[in-house]
Design brief:
Elements lengths: L6 E5 L5 H10 L3 E5 L2 H5 L3 E4 L4 H10 L3 H8 L4 E4 L1 H6 L2 E3 L16 E4 L10 E7 L3 E8 L4 E5 L4 E7 L6 E8 L2 E4 L10 H7 L5
Parallel strand pairs: 1-2, 1-3, 3-4, 4-12, 5-6
Antiparallel strand pairs: 6-9, 7-8, 10-11, 11-12
Length: 203
């Protein structure tokens, strides 16, 4: 695959867009900010970045991107990081009945706990082993969600234990064209997760 010939879109509505575009460039691919369905049509893959999931969900509705992203995911790779994981899920747990709810895209069968690891002050970094990707992968968790339930079609790639919980939590998974992480792979110098995602682009 000639990397430069592949266009990786980053949903450019709110959140960590520049960081993802910089990581894409380091891997030798072309990056494309995606704001409209017409932008999405130009992409070979799509990243839904971290940020504020409520804001991104609202702006996706306003920009008529819900159905186009769902259709896109059936044929091309989608990566959801942090808030992107929340948006890719089929179910979001613990949403406040009085607040504006996040409407999930339902790209993979999983239930996600928003801010599952706590608020901004509870952010942390750790090292992960990820099935099929590698060991000692640095992972940055910022107001991070986790996967509470993964359906039978979902392959779990990474779990972690955390001081605030008994047992372990799922923090990375995939199903078909869709890859999700609770953490921010774009914020470290280790681009193995991003490279793994880009390898899903059809030749």
């Amino acid at each position: 695959m000639r990397r430069g010939s592949k266009m990786i879109g980053v949903l450019d509505l709110q959140g960590a867009v520049p960081e993802h575009l910089a990581a894409i460039k380091k891997l030798g691919y072309a990056g494309l900010p995606v704001k409209t369905p017409a932008d999405l049509d130009k992409a070979d893959a799509l990243i839904i970045p971290g940020g504020e999931s409520t804001a991104i969900s609202r702006l996706m509705r306003e920009n008529a991107l819900f159905k186009p992203i769902r259709d896109f995911s059936r044929k091309r790779p989608v990566l959801g990081t942090c808030a992107g994981l929340i948006l890719c899920a089929s179910e979001i747990l613990g949403q406040n009945e009085d607040a504006q709810k996040v409407a999930p895209l339902g790209l993979l069968d999983c239930a996600v706990s928003r801010n599952g690891f706590g608020r901004q002050a509870n952010s942390f970094e750790t090292m992960l082993s990820m099935d099929g990707i590698g060991d000692d992968i640095p992972a940055v968790f910022i107001r991070a969600p986790y996967i509470e339930r993964a359906g039978p079609s979902v392959k779990v790639l990474a779990r972690i234990s955390h001081a605030g919980f008994h047992g372990v939590r799922i923090v990375a998974a995939e199903c078909g064209n869709v890859l999700v992480t609770s953490f921010h792979p774009e914020l470290t110098g280790d681009l193995r997760v991003m490279d793994y995602f880009c390898s899903k682009i059809p030749r």
